[in-house]
Amino acid sequence: MADLKALAEAVMKGNQSGALELTKAALSDGDPVKSILNEGLIGGMDIIAARWKKNEVYIPEVLIAARAMKTAMALLEPELVKAGVEPIGTFMIGTVAGDLHDIGKNLVAMMLKGAGFQVFDVGIDVPPEKFVEQAKATGVRLIGLSALLTTTMPGMETSIKALKDAGVSAKIMIGGAPVTQAYADKIGADGYSADAASAVDLAKRLTA
């Protein structure tokens, strides 16, 4: 059996080549793909997320850990499909119309992938009708709306209304620098989180 603790460690350190080699070794040793995913890749990202919440690491460390995980995931994904391993949830994320910011959105998307979610990133400047179209096409259970400007926050309200009017039953989360829990309550969102690590916790709660 391969050393999955070492794989988790490689992810935490952002060691791309190490994460890739250890994933290859685990697959050739016949380790269950679900264990490689959960104990190795997700195990490493979970620790990074917990450290980030405590301000023990910063965004650059999170980004390089996520990149190491992504490298190893490219190798693991076909094996997960073959083994019939299901993601823990499906999530669509995008920045609302008029807003071109994507760093926060990308970080949330990476952290969610790191937690075992299947993520559909629909990009930036997304109009309400595109959220509706993509929600119906993907059948996701969760939708994340991001805004970084107070001037684009109303786009969250119009997007939520459009999704609900279209009969989309997915739970909707919102986030971004100017966004608050009070605003989430006001516009009928199912949840709000202040940072990417909290967004993962919220997503897990909403899919439970």
What does this structure look like?
By secondary structure, this protein is an alpha/beta fold. It folds into two domains: 4-83, Methyltransferase, Methionine Synthase (B12-binding Domains), Chain A, domain 1 (Orthogonal Bundle); 89-207, Rossmann fold (3-Layer(aba) Sandwich), CATH 3.40.50. Helices cover 59% and strands 14% of the residues. It is built from nine helices and five strands. It has helices at 4-13, 16-28, 33-53, 59-83, 103-114, 128-138, 154-165, 181-187, 196-207, and strands at residues 89-96, 117-126, 142-146, 171-175, 191-192. A five-stranded parallel sheet has the order 2-1-3-4-5, sandwiched between helices. β1 (89-96), α5 (103-114) and β2 form a beta-alpha-beta unit. α4 crosses α5 and α6 crosses α7 (154-165). The radius of gyration is 17 Å and the shape is globular. The relative contact order is 0.13. The mean pLDDT is 94.
Write the layout of secondary structure elements.
Elements: H1 4-13, H2 16-28, H3 33-53, H4 59-83, E1 89-96, H5 103-114, E2 117-126, H6 128-138, E3 142-146, H7 154-165, E4 171-175, H8 181-187, E5 191-192, H9 196-207
Parallel strand pairs: 1-2, 1-3, 3-4, 4-5
Helix pairs in contact: 1-2, 1-3, 1-4, 2-3, 2-4, 3-4, 4-5, 5-9, 6-7
